[in-house]
Write a structure and sequence with these properties.
The structure holds 2 protein chains of 2 kinds. By secondary structure, chain A is an all-beta fold. Chain A has strands at residues 6-13, 21-27, 30-36, 42-46, 60-62, 67-69, 76-78, 83-86, 94-95, 97-100, 103-109. Chain B has 7 helices and 19 strands. Classes of the chains: A mainly beta, B alpha/beta.
């Protein structure tokens, strides 16, 4: 298996993305959600819900539990892992992140694919 | 009347008349912005305002969140331009999403009859038939900035222009009061169909949970299932405060009897339950079944309570379709 190399994209200055908050951006046409979890971890996920592609950044966010509820049809995700809580069995695509000199970077695999999971359900 | 231009980051542009909603103006111009509920509940239609001034026509819309202002996100279904605009809608389609080919129609009131205490059945003859799925709803224009959602209480049949709503009058609240005043021969503007609650294909048992006038979409769905001789087991749990508020219960029972495997459970809160089967609320009598598919409609508080009960009972949100109109 070949592992695609990563292209690191500058996302936000860490000062813009407070602990307990999230911001969204578009990288090469892909919506990306960057979360700064309570405790300090920084995670990046696909920016649209795997269900019907509603923007996750429009959803309801509980910074204490780290759970994001999509506004469209109330799908819930644990933003510390990207794993779907309700329904179970669906997870967000996760991008690698790094913080360098106060700047958050998101790593996008250079594989020519669009990076997101779909769980259309019904 | 003045108009403002809306230019989209995806390349399309269209004009919006003064006071007109951006989503509807786009649709009338053949530009289908993303949407689902049409009235500000789901947030599917949120777009980013890149440039220009707007006015929100329903500041209390459930989908409007504190974070929106900072991110310049607007609900295009409930927003009108105050200047020319540039918007990023995320995506645009040239045709309606499946099941959501919304049309603007004019209807004539045929009947507005009592069905129970403060509950009436409104029949409207549209100027042209609009296909919809049983379980969907219409947005009825009842005056300036006065629009309300009502589910169709009977299924669509080819060429049928008649639609039926069941609604409750809430004190002096303007929407239902305006509905109450409609008389035979009156004209009403109707946008339809909207909503994502319709019977999904499959083999799983179906459970419908309705509170009050939330029975309307269930009547339509049961009739549709009966009409196509669907073989799935269907249970309808229908609750209200008192027995006389269980409007259309006999109509529901008749429809259920024409199903292969159907059951109705009438639930009332008052101890004097009359012809009801059980006492309590629909939440009290609900025994969540993880393998069933759920359809829920009623007052927002009831719907929230049912969703909570189903969640605790291990029913995935992907197995539940619901409507709640405040």
């Amino acid at each position: 298996m070949t592992v695609a190399s990563l292209a690191w994209h500058e996302a936000f200055a860490i000062d813009e993305l407070w602990e307990g908050d999230f911001l969204d951006l578009e990288i090469d046409g892909e919506p990306v959600l960057v979360v700064h979890l309570i405790g300090g971890a920084i995670k990046a996920y696909q920016g649209v819900c795997p269900h019907q592609e509603v923007m996750l950044a429009d959803g309801d966010w509980d910074e204490d539990t780290g759970v994001l509820v999509c506004g469209g049809h109330r799908w819930e995700f644990d933003m510390s892992s990207g794993v779907g809580i309700n329904p179970a069995g669906c997870a967000l695509y996760e991008y690698p992140t790094k913080v360098d000199d106060g700047v958050v970077f998101v790593g996008v695999p250079e594989d020519g694919e669009r990076h997101y999971n779909r769980c259309p359900g019904s | 009347m003045s108009a403002h231009s809306v230019a989209l980051s995806t390349g399309e542009s269209f004009l919006v008349a003064d006071g007109e909603r951006i989503l509807a103006a786009g649709r009338r111009a053949g530009v289908w912005l993303p949407f689902e509920c049409g009235w500000g509940s789901c947030g599917t239609c949120k777009a980013t305002l890149i440039d220009g001034e707007v006015e929100t026509l329903f500041p209390g819309a459930p989908a409007i969140k504190p974070r929106d202002a900072r991110r310049r996100r607007i609900l295009v279904c409930q927003t009108t331009p105050r200047s020319d605009l540039v918007l990023d809608p995320g995506s645009v389609a040239e045709a309606a999403p499946e099941g959501l080919a919304v049309e603007d129609r004019v209807g004539t009131v045929v009947a507005n009859d009592d069905l129970g205490p403060d509950v009436r059945r409104l029949e409207i003859e549209l100027d042209r038939a609009v296909p919809y799925r049983a379980g969907q709803y219409a947005i009825v224009e009842l005056g300036p900035r006065l629009r309300r959602c009502y589910s169709m209480a009977s299924p669509f049949r080819e060429g049928r222009r008649r639609i039926v709503f069941i609604y409750k009058r809430y004190g002096t609240r303007p929407g239902s009061t305006a509905m109450w005043r409609l008389a035979e021969g009156d004209s009403v503007r109707v946008e339809m169909p909207y909503g994502g609650m319709w019977v999904r294909d499959g083999r799983d048992a179906i459970v419908m949970v309705a509170g009050g006038t939330g029975i309307a979409p269930m009547l339509a769905m049961v009739a549709e299932l009966a009409g196509r001789q669907d073989e799935r087991a269907v249970e309808v749990i229908y609750g209200a405060g008192s027995a006389d508020e269980l409007v259309a219960a006999n109509e529901l029972k008749a429809a259920i009897e024409s199903l292969r495997e159907g059951r109705v459970r009438l639930v009332v809160e008052s101890p004097d339950r009359g012809f009801a089967d059980e006492t309590g609320t629909v939440v009290d009598v609900l025994a969540p079944l993880a393998s069933a598919r759920y359809y829920v409609a009623g007052p927002p508080r009831m719907v929230e309570a049912v969703l909570g009960r189903l969640r605790d009972g291990g029913v995935g949100i992907d197995r539940i379709a619901f409507d709640s109109f405040g």
